[in-house]
Amino acid sequence: MADPRVLGIVLAGGAGTRLAPLTADRAKPAVPFGGVYRLVDFALSNMANSGILKICVLTQYKSHSLDRHITTTWRTSTMLGNYVTPVPAQQRLGPHWYTGSADAIFQSMNLINDEDPDLVVVVGADHVYRMDLRQMIAHHIEYGAGATVAALPVARQDAKAFGIVGVGSDGRSIQNFLEKPAEPPPLPDSPDESFASMGIYVFDTKVLTDGLRRDAEDDESRHDIGGSLVPLLVGDGGAQAYDFLTNQVPGQTDRDHGYWRDVGTIDAYFDAHMDLRTVEPMFNLYNSRWPILTHTPALPPAKFVHDNGDRVGRAIDSLVSNGVIVSGGLVRESVLSPGARINSWSLVERSVIMHNTTVGRHAVVRDAILDKNVLVPEGAQVGVDKEYDRARGFVVSPGGITVVGKGQEVPQ
């Protein structure tokens, strides 16, 4: 198939309850990440950099900020027929919302019918990674697959937390697809590893639409792509796995080759941020050959002021966004989003500080995530005493990360 017509679908309707309170006022794909991005920007950047420029983003849960971000940021050339458009749940097939990821696409079948693509690429909106989807499409075409699932080798002892792709002796023909199995099937050439599904799929259009109709008619189905649709297609014998580690992205480093993170929990989200701010990051945001695209607000450069005794404005091993002012405070191993203000004699350490949050004088923030517009008053502490944080009503993750929700003022 030469130059197939490709439609991209981004599944962005998830509630993201495990990321609460960051998802109390927004959809999971709209959660800020890495200072200036939203989680959805990674999926959309991979599609755009791969030349997939007709993209529908299926939304549902608390979608306003996500819709606004997409419509104001992701604008392409309409003259060339390109678009990135948010598509809310429309109840086209009756008075019910999406019941799963497969049902979301089935209820939005008009998008596929209108575009009439040869292939449909479906990705989730809440993972951090780089991927040249053209290479996966080429693999899909080469082996004549009806459906191709991107998979990442993981240690078998860790595989119980994933959807697992069991493959035949050729290493790519899918024999079974198992959700969080107690005994994950090993890879043919690596018995200590299993293939974990990444939630990235390529479908022949007819295979997808026929499969979605059959799944919709099954009252026992959960109507998910991984849990329902892919096992159905595996039974037809036309499903293939694509090894993500074979994917080569321009400008990648040895450290971030094969990097993929599911940031669906507070601890995973925090750890992914800590990946970013090291000297040699696990995920390199500075790859200009495969940029992560977004809109950055019109704010002035970051500013560091005061150098008088113990009143020195500085940031070490940290990412600092535009509009930030570090005024006589110390920032270590942290990520600061646009407009954050760190005042004199304060300490911010191993933390994620989101947009327009203020840390007052002599305050301490450690091992914490502060959402947008949070106020930490003078002398207050966050993340220092976890029991005290819980007593004040803050979420503390199993890994010991304190989270302060959007717009809150930290009590003294």
List key phrases describing it.
Spore Coat Polysaccharide Biosynthesis Protein SpsA, Chain A, globular, 9 helices, nine-stranded mixed sheet, UDP N-Acetylglucosamine Acyltransferase, domain 1, 412 residues, alpha/beta, 21% helix, 29% strand, 29 strands, 2 domains
Give the low-confidence spans.
none
- The gross shape turns out to be globular
Mean pLDDT: 94
CATH top level assignment of the largest domain: Alpha Beta
User: Which percent range fits the helix content?
Assistant: 10-25%
Count up the domains: 2
CATH topology of the largest domain: Spore Coat Polysaccharide Biosynthesis Protein SpsA, Chain A
Largest sheet: 9 strands, mixed
What count of helical segments does DSSP give? 9
Which class of secondary structure composition applies to the elements? alpha/beta
Can you offer a commentary on this structure?
The chain has 412 residues and is an alpha/beta fold. The protein has two domains: 263 residues, Spore Coat Polysaccharide Biosynthesis Protein SpsA, Chain A (Alpha-Beta Complex), CATH 3.90.550; 102 residues, UDP N-Acetylglucosamine Acyltransferase, domain 1 (3 Solenoid), CATH 2.160.10.10. Helix 3 crosses helix 6 and helix 6 packs across helix 7. It is globular, with a radius of gyration of 22 Å.
